[in-house]
Amino acid sequence: MKSVIRNVAVPALLSFAMLASAAWAQQTTSASETPSSTAPAAKTHSQKRADAVEQRISDLHAQLKITDAQSKPWDAFAQTMRDNATHTAQAFRDRSQKLSSMNADEAMKSYAQLAQNHADNMQKLSTAWSALYAVLSDDQKQTADAMYRNQSAKRHNAPRKHKTSAPASAASSG
Questions:
Q1: What domain count does the chain have?
Q2: Is the entire prediction scored with pTM above 0.70?
């Protein structure tokens, strides 16, 4: 049971942390930039994040070989991904603007609200995914199942420093 929770929670929390740091960095840089200080060809952090979401959508579409008949649930799933990314970035921008004037209690509550927003977003994404998954062919489902199993396995099978059984001195000597 713990591994099931870990397989679901860890990727979700990693995604949340990634979005959190991305949104935080975006707010910090955008506050210090003026329109004249950025080169026209340079992409903002926000645009880079949107591009990453679009790339993930494109990759999933290609890997799953979405058909025209599956376009309605696919479009809903893809739009949910976009909306979640937009709402998350906005929530982090809003929080970072207020953070300097928050006391510790308010900061903790605002972080709890971010976590709740993430949970809500994951629920929306899960609902959209279920609708899409229901119309996938058996081959597409096998592909999706393998994709999500492999992502979890890659995250959980990575070597971790705290899992070594040798003492630190023995591990560093050899």
A1: 1
A2: no
